[in-house]
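dumping the sequnces here before i forget
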Amino acid sequence: MTSAEVITTFAKYEIKRAIARKKVLALVAFTILLGTVPYYALSAAGTTLIPNSVYPYIWVVGIFAVGPLFLNFTAILIAAGAMSEEYEQGTAELLLSKPVRRSDYFIGKFLGGYTLFLSILTLNIFLSVASAYTFFGAQNNLYIIPGLFLAQAFASLVFFSLAFMLGELIRRSSLAYIFSSAVFFSSYIISTFMGLIYMLTGKEIYKTIQIYLPTSPANSLPIQYAFPQLPSSLSTLLRFVNTTTTVPTINLSIEILLTYTLVAIAIAAIYFLRADISRKLS
Amino acid sequence: MLGLIRPTSGQVRVNGLDPIAHHVEALRNVAYSPELPNIQTFLTPKELLNLISHELNFSDNATRNDEIKRVLELVGLHEYANTKVGKLSKGMVQRLSVAQALLGKPETLILDEPMIGLDPAGVAHFREVFRDFASKGNGTVLMSSHIMSEVESLCTSVAIIHKGKILFRGPAKEVEQEILNYSLIQLETSPLTAQTLQQLQQIPGVAHIDTSNNPNNTGTITLEIAVNQQDTDIRPQIADLVIKSGAKLYTIKPAENMLERAYLEALKETNEGKP
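..and the predicted 3d for all of it:
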């Protein structure tokens, strides 16, 4: 059996394990709610609030409304427990006592969790489009969906990797969730403050700090990809959701995200390959 | 030994290889059954074995299914193949732990307290499974246990380890002589006279006679005779003497729990008295 087949086995196992933990079902339920209820609410609000010209593009609302918070938080919830829950339950010991490479296990767990996240992202996009079609008729510019999917997937990878790393380093799922969420929300809050201070003082250092915080490129990338391909008339509607791009260029967003992601994965991998696999922790 | 924990000192070699640096090669024919295994509760035994069979590199689905069926039947879990592990009893989970270790016919089995949680029938069954593995399968069983009677009944070689140090290592039958410097013969008879006890004491090889637990509720007495000669079996002489004294001889046999006595004695030698 090749290394790829072993990795696939662990990836499938991770998906099954995460689903069995029930939290994924809760995330799916939230995704369904967030992909349908906002459209119903907008539909019920009537045409005085939403111009007719926006109707064919309203599918993006569901994506940008939930992306920054819900999808990144979903990534954290899935990734933080991927390694840590196995240590807590003592189940890693049995799997790793077999003649398999630790690297295969690591990659399989990472890919399995990330595949699960991508499934939820797919559901989010599908529901946004389907709901928009149901409540507002035919939708335009759907050709940008594959690119938008990739942008959102890549943007969320940074928090997925950070949570995965913290789960491996801390080896306690609850602490890993808390620390990962703390990083996420701290970045969000600090970014807001840095932007505010920059506006008040005009000092570049605050702007630079804001740009390099992980939430900034994670939020900016999907917007940077999608907005040039959407009509400007959407701005009326999208002012209700967070669509500010703090990172000046799409390339810089990708570079920052890539750096954070690779560093987090590298730290997790080095630690996992060198650390002991001890017996049940709790 | 399984490459899961790095040694704080010294080194481990499995099949001549470092199980950390060469994990896959070193453990290719080695299987492990943990004590009170933590097995994924959302899986069924069949699913767990299927997962592990993928780790073990089985060539095709037919071989995989046949092997899974074989080990499930071997440990008596075939009726529960599709029951979630979370719904199995402790003993069944222990059986599953052994089943996953037997998967793929390894050459070496590493068993950590394999009998814990098993009912007496299960214990007897697994003794046979492990004996067959060692004799018919020509395999090696490395068993870690605190149940000395299990070790005594199964193992041909013994190592007594205390706080990471090997206090004794050698053939099981040599433990008594190496650590205790004597073997014990247990005797159940009707009460013996002082003269008979004195005569027993004079048999060559007899080091000491312990009568401290007498008499029994049944009116008989139990003697433990310490013998410091291994090359001659003096049980016929003892039996002759007792019968000629007019007393009734009910049993005469080597004493049990010698390994436990040896273990406790070995601990005493570390000046710790009690473990």
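The CA atoms of residues 150 and 272 of chain A lie 28 Å apart.
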